[in-house]
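User: Structure tokens for this complex, please. No commentary.
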Amino acid sequence: MADDKSTKLLFIFFLFLLLLNYPLLTIVDKTQLWFGFPSLYLYMFVVWGLMIFGIAQIVKQRKKKP
Amino acid sequence: MGLSVIVGCSLAYISLLFFIAWWVDKRSTDQKPGIVNSPYVYALSLAVYCTAWTFFGSVGRATTGGLSFLGVYLGPTLLAPLWFVLLRKIILISKNQRITSIADFISARYGKSANIGVLVTLIAVLGIVPYISIQLKAVTFGINTLAHYGEAIPITQPHFWQDAAFWVTVAMALFTVVFGTRKLDPNERHEGLVAAIAFESIIKLIAFLMVGIFVTFFLYNGFDDLFTRAQQQEETARMFTFSGSGVTPFSWNMLLLLSLFAILLLPRQFHISVVENTHPRQIAKAMWVFPLYLLLINIFVLPVALAGKMAFANSIHPDTYVLSIPLSQGVKWLALVAFIGGFSAATSMVVVEATALSIMFGNHVVVPLLIKTRLFGQGKDTVDGASRLLDIRRICIMLMLLLAYLYQKSVGSTYDLVSVGLISFTAAAQLAPALIGGIYWKRGTHQGAIAGLIIGFIFWAFCLPLPSMALAGIISDDFVRNGLFGLSFLKPYALFGLTGLDPITHAAFWSLLFNAWFYCIVSINTKPTMLNLTQADLFVNIDKYIGGQDSDILKREAKVSELRVMLNRFLGEQRSIALFREFELTNNVQLDQQKIAQADLVNFVETHLAGAIGAASARLVLDSVVKEEVITMEEVMRILEQTREAVEHGRIMEHKNAELKALTLQLTTANEQLKNLDRLKADFITTVTHELRTPVTSIKSLSKIILDYSDELDETRKEEYLRILVTESDRISRLINQVLDIEKIQSNEAPLHLEWMDMGILVRQAAKSMEQLFAERHITIRIHGADQPFPLQADRDRLMQVVVNLLSNALKFCDPNDGIIDVTLDRQGDWVVLKVHDNGPGIKPEMQQMIFEKFTQLHSQSQGKPHGTGLGLFISRSIVEKHGGVIRVESHTNAVPKGALFEVRIPIKKGV
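Assistant:
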């Protein structure tokens, strides 16, 4: 259902708006390195990647529609 | 590196772009499947978002603002999931209204207002000029860095013809003019341009990734090495975090918001994502491909910035790191590749932006002005309107680039790329309340939009470009330090005493706040015009209008000839003739025979005209020839009350209603049949009882006579009475047998006893058995063809029943005076055909189907009352059909030969 998909996408929007925002960012906003990457840098790109993956998954469901 | 090499490569690259555009355009005119229809090309063309700002500026930004540069790309990514609803809606509206630019969109929403068109155009042009200027600047310093690396960069020349930036501007202007205004497309679709932009997106991504990989894996030993070393220096470790780079939560949020608006509202983004969109279904794929592109192009920004910072400290401007690092390592070819990447990022931005702005400027400022002063489109000028429009656009493009050059010379040189770019982002964001409010809030009015736009623009101008001009020394900087008119609360960087924010965040906050607030307050307190109301309904409830419904409720009419002249003037004769023919075909009308065009043609002309010169201009042009019927406000309100829900509801009701109607019809027919059957049954019972009563009465009376007067009756009389008794009893039992027969046949209890037999013999036997009856009535029976054998497989007794029934019917209805019955036997292919033809009164056509039904009896004229039981023909038909045959009657009451002709066709072998 298209409406169902819109709701999921809206959910993605709010979820990642939260994840890419304060106060969560303060947790990773440090000069330390995680796996050789600055923590904020790593966090940003991983969340970003997850978001793209999430959108792609939701959009793909279209094929099931008649 | 020699200047000639750089220029040569750039020219070669531009030629390649021309070739791609030419090739794609040629394909589309050859009706081959368009490359542009691919969602991947669409997503890549959206990456026109990544300009020289991204290519050179992000690295520079990262050296001061750390990772905050990511906000510019995370904003669009955050908006991407909402495209499915938001962008789709905008595209649907734009296709419906043939929108050509964002100014056109907003002006069309608020009653096709010319004022709003002008306002939006001015905001866009003035707001985007700084953005274009940074592209010029980036290309210029790119060339300078490549050509003069290691030398002192030449000081700005006193004469503009010695200035590299000037020649870059001229080259860009020529390129844009040739590329963006090659032809006038009525829908402003430029497939070749889109394909070239998509190609440029690939080039800039590859170029940047190459530089990134070189820095990370060749200059350093991978991310680990690079980041560990950067962590050890305070100057670079600072760039790891927001807190170390001076990014506050509020400024981060504002950056996300600005870039989220920018991806939708920047004229070039609107142009690529909406106007050049070939189908809304492309959105789905672009929703994740485009963010993925943004992610990839940003991965190496921080590493390059860290490496540059560690290598050069502050000796080189950070915006040039992408070029300087390969040059410092002596890898000149990579520097050249990087330059081409940045060059492609800049050219794609300038071409699309300037094209989009020139469409806006031409359609919303120049054309309305010319129309109002009657210099264009009026009178009898024979100049082709289309080429004039293109000329106007070419001049617009050159003026805009000149403006950008002047800005760059005077102001831009003192700021880094991103800071200047963000000024433009803030300007574009001013369109957000009018646009987003326009498609979700029906109550938003023309006055509200104007108020919001003006106030937002004033705050933007006061807080960003004016102080930057003041600091560049163009105007007095008194107001920056002491506030406007010496009022301390009117300082452009600390308005109303608000301090502690960077200029962009500060300006965006105030301008958007007042913009949105004025838009709402003024909208609520003003009354929309009628056209504003209808357009608002169309934009907000676009789904309701899709599917070719009349989108304009205003009743307008105009002379066909005048519309024709008008369209000729703006679209050229060839195209307008084609359009009129298209209209004639789709609406099935002959326009030559109409003098006055109705609303549908006026709307058709307007939308196509709007495709060429924008909605507001099209309306202005049409106003001169169109008469508008006055409709009352109540009427408009009444029509608009029907929201989508109401229409939907009505559709469901209609559907249910139709179902009910069909059901009622079925019930009525069924009822009719039942009634008919009931009547037939009642008739039958009357007949049967009557038929039974007659013999019973005579049996009873005769028996009584015999019983009472047995002594007085002589033998002959007695014998005669007894014979009558027997005949009458026979009649009763025959009747009862027939009724039982029907029961049997109907319940399928009597299977056929099939055997090979001769139809000829059977017919002769039947005739023979009835000989006496024929003789009594003086009827001649003539049998044709029965002397030959007609073998067939059938149930002999049943078939005999049929033949006897047909003969006795013929007997009953024959001419009483001169009765003739013709019986014909024949073979037609695999069928034996028996015809029985009498010369009686015949059967009326309306009765011909009825006679084969149960209980149907005919009243013979001669005898007045029905004979028989009304079951004979029904039984006959049942028997014939069980044999796989057909029985039918042919009769002409008045024609010759008169009488009824019964025809029985039976297959020789059942199942053949």
